[in-house]
Amino acid sequence: MTIHLRADRALFRFSGPEAHRLLNDVVTGEIPSTGEGTGEAAAAWALLSAQGKILAEGLAGHADDALWLDVHQSVADDFFKRMKMYRLRAQVVIDDLRDTHRVGFAQDEEPQGIRHMDRLGPVDMGWRVIAPIEATADWVQNDTSYQQQRIALGIVHQGNDFPANDAFAHDIGMDILEGIDFAKGCYVGQEVVSRMKHRGTARRRPVIVSGVEAPAGSAVVAGGKEAGTIGQVADGMAVAIVRLDRITDPGTVTVDGKPVEIALPVWADYRLGDAVSADE
């Protein structure tokens, strides 16, 4: 069994009788209320600002009578601070596990210990693995294979592809990849998410860019206009969040002045060239 360390992930444990209610009332996803951490699917989620922008995002899985959430290291301090604020007097203990635990990725064979399926809607990414630091000595100390896989599938990650408070949940496809529970009650930013869904005003979406010879953050240019920017680059590929309406001729798209190929993820229900709703 090969497990790859995901060194850029920070882990937090939420426990106590009101942990599930706290998270379910604050983040976008359908947070699991049960599970032993023995192969159940983790839930994708995002913590939004009141304006609907993503402040943190990751996976949540249940194990050992607690919920285990991972976020990108770049937003870990802010996430911890905000969740302690939202907790108020609720019976919830929030443990910062950055000094004691690590997050890993496994793909082919089901690992041992605390693990959850990393499944985003129709996309099967493998396994999210959680272990104390002392149990990770034999893990592969890089996440190259994980990044290559998720980029090839068009999966966008905060910190790798976009910063905090920069993108809406629809921009990264969370509405398609089951990172939003449209049936539950209010959560922070819910009004914006709901409006984008019902008015069809999602104008930015992920695309896969191939043939890249430029660093992350470089502009995707179509028809002489900037359509978006690329994220982390792996083997000449990156995911970019782009304005769909600005890419009417994929054959003319460039990054850093050089031609690139644009493709939609296999899970996409949108098209290049889609126009913005009149309500936007």
TrEMBL record:
Keyword set, alphabetical order: Transit peptide
Superkingdom per UniProt: Bacteria
GO biological process: iron-sulfur cluster assembly
The keyword Transit peptide belongs to this UniProt entry's keyword annotation: yes
Keyword Transit peptide: yes
Residue span, CAF17 C-terminal domain: 203-268
InterPro entries registered for this protein in UniProt: CAF17_C (IPR057460), TrmE/GcvT-like (IPR027266), YgfZ/GCV_T_CS (IPR017703), YgfZ/GcvT (IPR045179)
Transmembrane segments: none
UniProt-listed Gene3D superfamilies: Probable tRNA modification gtpase trme, domain 1
Protein name (Swiss-Prot/TrEMBL): CAF17 C-terminal domain-containing protein
